[in-house]
Design goal:
Order of helices and strands of chain B: HHHHH
CATH class of the largest domain in chain B: Mainly Alpha
Largest sheet of chain B: none
Largest interface: A-B, 30 and 28 residues
CATH superfamily of chain A: Glutaredoxin
Low-confidence stretches of chain B: 13-17
CATH architecture of chain A: 3-Layer(aba) Sandwich
Strand order of the largest sheet of chain A: 5-4-3-6-7
Number of domains of chain A: 1
Oligomer: heterodimer
CATH class of chain A: Alpha Beta
Strand content of chain B: under 5%
CATH topology of chain A: Glutaredoxin
Low-confidence stretches of chain A: none
Radius of gyration of chain A: 22 Å
Number of helices of chain B: 5
Distance between the termini of chain A: 70 Å
Order of helices and strands of chain A: HHEEEHEHEHEEH
Shape of chain A: elongated
Mean pLDDT of chain A: 95
Number of strands of chain A: 7
Helix content of chain A: 25-40%
Number of helices of chain A: 6
Helix content of chain B: 55-70%
Largest sheet of chain A: 5 strands, mixed
Number of domains of chain B: 2
Distance between the termini of chain B: 66 Å
Mean pLDDT of chain B: 86
Structural class of chain A: alpha/beta
Strand content of chain A: 15-25%
CATH architecture of the largest domain in chain B: Orthogonal Bundle
Chain lengths: 175, 134
């Protein structure tokens, strides 16, 4: 009996090794997803970021038609890579609005001149307020909002060319 | 694999890019009322920075953490209770955003472990002392 007890520390150590090995093989996913997917868009109203584009409010996102809301910034490199994909989605008929995070209007204007402008409304979110309200933790992120203002999908990171079809289908299904 | 690596690289890029905007008014400025500032500080120390996830927003230099500190300070200043602000963030980002684990069935072992270990230690120590006396 006493003899057997001596093995317990070694056993615990072996167990720890197994736990460590398992954790090393399966690193934790650091992506923080918004808990608002499936819930209504929180109330907000953002001033326009650009002349020629109205600002964006939650009320604009429950007008019966599903829309994409792209959270972006001119200082965000992946947003540049994503821009042509958004333009393609717009050409396929997907209406896209945008929220410019922590950005200067003149920088946004330069970004749109460089990378194309697929957006209808562009809200200015200089203090990240609305991004926080959406449960979004980076740029770019894209939300699909259905005609009743319910968030149907959150895409984290740039939409790659091979993901555009999935987004388009999700938009079509939200109709 | 290379695609995955590229995707990872793209995900890290926004962390490296620095926006040129000035920081929010209360990102680096304390509240005028020391009692409110203490409340805000205590809350900020238990909220996770979303882009640098090992740090609290009180410790992080990330712009996003600065904006989150400003959000906390402005809401405290407006009279909101710290726990209400924590709940507001948890509703959006999940429990992960808070460094203080809630007491719920899933976390009972976490809260119970110190007590159980202490009792176990006392029990072992008692056994030791008894034997020595004999």
């Amino acid at each position: 009996m006493r003899r057997g007890l001596l093995w317990i520390p070694l056993g615990i150590f072996a167990l720890l090794l197994v736990v460590a090995a398992f954790a090393l093989r399966n690193p934790a996913d650091p992506t923080i997803r918004s808990r608002l997917v499936g819930k209504p868009m929180p109330d907000f109203a953002l001033a326009p970021s650009q002349p020629g584009h109205p600002g964006l409010a939650a009320a604009d996102l429950r007008r019966g038609q599903p829309r994409l809301v792209n959270v972006f910034a001119s200082w965000c490199v992946p947003c540049r890579i994503e821009a042509p994909v958004l333009t393609m989605l717009k050409q396929r008929g997907v209406p896209i609005d945008a929220i410019a995070v922590r950005d200067r209007p003149e920088d946004v204007a330069a970004f749109l001149a460089d990378n194309g402008d697929p957006f209808e409304r562009i809200g200015d979110d200089p203090r990240t307020r609305v991004q926080f309200a959406l449960g979004s933790s980076g740029v770019p992120e894209t939300f699909l909002v259905d005609g009743r203002g319910i968030i149907r999908l959150q895409h984290i990171g740039p939409i790659n060319a091979d993901e555009a079809d999935d987004i388009y289908r999700a938009w079509r299904d939200a109709k | 694999m290379r695609r995955a690596a590229l995707a990872l690289l793209l995900l890290t890029a926004p962390l490296a890019a620095q926006p040129t905007m000035p920081s929010s008014p209360y990102a680096y400025t304390q509240l005028p009322d020391p009692k409110q500032e203490a409340e805000a500080k205590a809350l900020m120390e238990t909220l996770r920075c979303l882009v640098c996830q090992g740090q609290s927003i009180a410790d992080s230099n990330a712009d996003m953490a600065g904006d989150m500190r400003a959000l906390v300070r402005e809401r405290i200043r407006a009279g909101e209770k710290p726990e209400a602000i924590r709940r507001w963030l948890i509703e959006r980002y999940g429990e992960y955003v808070s460094y203080r684990p809630p007491v719920e069935p899933l976390t009972w072992p976490l809260w119970g472990a110190p007590v159980i270990l202490l009792v176990l230690g006392l029990f072992l120590a008692r056994g030791r002392f008894r034997r020595r006396r004999r």
